[in-house]
């Protein structure tokens, strides 16, 4: 079985390459230096990368050997276009590292509650299919009814095949919708669809506005005009949404609309973005304003993610704890009822 390069190794290579270039190392020498730190699939990918660079391949195209996520690949593409490769590689590595660390934190937080949930399902099966049927026979012989909680648990157990069938049908419908409908929508329609999902609209707006403001601001800072930046967005193919958005903005600019007005379309971006663009154009500091605004958005995204992490684990523990309490009450209440009846 072919081993794959770990995501954190990719992030570390990007970050360290950028840092070495900031210290004066040429790109190929920085990659050669890092090659000695790694082995296995990471070393193989580094060798392919170095060969691509020696053959004159652009940085963006040479990194295909790393199989980077689209947003990271796009980050490097924009950095190469603005002529700041060192800072771009370091920034892409840090962004990739934060993304993977967040995924690992989610996995770590879910691991113990999911283990408890699995143990609960085993215990539930044992109690419902082996213990409670024996109680049921005994209660029938004594002409006594189960306590309410026990009857509820037994009703849930009887409904399990139906609930599993309903869940399977829902998953099949969602899979069918995704394959036959959602994937064929335009990127803009896909984003608008995601914004209709409860709880996602605000985060989708934050992320999209952050990516746009950060990369647009940095490209402007490199000396490109607004039209040139739009052309750069159009040519990149890793983030299809921004590619189609650049085409839309370009068409609206040609039609005579102002740049700030093109950001009012569809409630996809944060509502304050047009005002920030207008202020930046009037003051002649659009690039600075967009970069500053993107940093503010990044802080809000980070705060939102941290809040989510703080909610998920306690919520799961409460859920699993409540289910376990319900199960034990459904078993012990009949025991107490039997003791009372015998007395």
Largest sheet: none
Number of H- or I-type helical stretches: 13
If you consult CATH, what is the topology of the domain at 136-343?
Answer: Receptor-associated Protein
Give the CA-based shape: elongated
Number-wise, the strands total: 0
Q: Give the terminus-to-terminus CA distance.
A: 66 Å
Question: Can you give the mean pLDDT?
Answer: 86
Give the CATH H-level superfamily of the domain at 136-343: Type II secretion system (T2SS), domain F
Uncertain residue segments: none
Helix content: over 70%
Order of helix and strand elements from N to C terminus: HHHHHHHHHHHHH
Strand residue content:
under 5%
The top level CATH class name of the domain at 136-343: Mainly Alpha
Structural class: mainly alpha
Question: If you had to describe this structure to a student in words, what would you say it looks like?
Answer:
Helix content is 79%, strand content 0%. By secondary structure, it is an all-alpha fold. It has a domain at 136-343: Up-down Bundle (Receptor-associated Protein), CATH 1.20.81.30. Helix 2 (27-35) packs antiparallel against helix 3 (40-54), helix 5 (70-82) packs parallel to helix 9 (201-221) and helix 9 packs antiparallel against helix 13 (286-342). The longest helix is centred in the N-terminal third of the chain and has 57 residues, at 85-141.
SSE diagram, text form:
Elements: H1 7-22, H2 27-35, H3 40-54, H4 59-62, H5 70-82, H6 85-141, H7 148-180, H8 187-195, H9 201-221, H10 226-235, H11 240-254, H12 273-283, H13 286-342
Helix pairs in contact: 1-2, 1-6, 2-3, 5-6, 5-9, 6-13, 7-13, 9-13, 10-11, 12-13
